[in-house]
Amino acid sequence: MNKRSYMFIAAILIFFVSGAYYFLKEENPAPAPAEVVNNDQPRSISYSGNSIIEEKDGKRLWELGAETIEVDPNTKQAIMKNLKGVFYQDNGGKLEIVALQAVYDTKTRDIVMNGQVKAVSADGATFTAETARWAGENRRIYGSGGVTVTRDDTVIIGDRVESDANMQKVKVEGNARIRKGGSAN
Known about the structure:
With 185 residues, this protein is mainly beta. It has a domain of 113 residues: lipopolysaccharide transport protein A fold, CATH 2.60.450.10. The protein contains one helix and twelve strands. Strands 1, 2, 3, 4, 5, 6, 7, 8, 9, 10, 11 and 12 form a twelve-stranded antiparallel sheet that branches. The mean pLDDT is 82.
């Protein structure tokens, strides 16, 4: 056999040995893909110490601040804890309001407040209720549950109240009573 035949046989042997090694070698299994967690629960965004402001034509309509504001992107609602807000009146005054909790609906622009709701207008008139709702469309406030409206020495008590933003036109319904020259007790 000549040199060329030996080279050819050696090349074929190297080819077969390499092929056998390639097919018979042990491989570490590929790492499993990371498990994708599909959490269908709605996600929300939470803020601390922020405020929400509504303006129209450059004029501030109201401003709401809270200890925490949690926004649900699915419902477009903001849930506020320990609300402190200011509703600016047409006459230049303001109505300051506090509540334990409030929900602002960005679609309707309504604000529903719950828990020890108290509002004080610039002229000293006060409004208290367990629940109140600010109707953004017509700029009116509605209250229910142990409603008390006080202006100067006049106290009005009832089950439900409806008022304009200036607290000038107040309508009380359900077991309504008026006391002149006294306190709410």
